[in-house]
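Our preliminary data section would be incomplete without showing what the modeling component actually yields. Below, a chain of 144 amino acids is followed by its predicted structure, encoded as tokens that our downstream tools consume directly.
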Amino acid sequence: MKGPGKNEQMMLELERIRERSGSDFVAYAMPAEHYRLMRWNFVIGSRNGRVGQMKLKPGIGIGGMVLRHGVPYTINDRENPLLLGECPVMLAEKLASAIAFPVPAESLCSLNGILLLGRRSDQRYDVHEVQGLHTFLHMLVESE
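Predicted structure:
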């Protein structure tokens, strides 16, 4: 009997991250066919399914900010309330706070993906959670 396939394994890992972080929503974007475009390939906790059809563009929404700058990015009502109403994922999923991380590829000049975590409650991701999730992600990437 075969173990889980690559997609199933990815969904299991994302569910583990969702539970560990106390998040309601998790999405993982991977590069699309076109230069500098990505799309949300894996989504857990979606209420409407529209996120899977969205493309990421540099500088637009939380994923686009990570794509442009290559660093973790948060959105909540205290740090950047204007982006709550401008981020397509936040609007579609009715998220009150979110954090997104770049997932590096083997070459340092490109991204393998973007991981987005979101909460529908107004509980923000604090600094300790961000650091813990960042460390956890690095451990996952290194173990592959």
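Helices lie at 6-21, 61-69, 81-84, 88-93, 127-143. The mean pLDDT is 84. Preliminary results of this kind motivate Aim 1 of the renewal.
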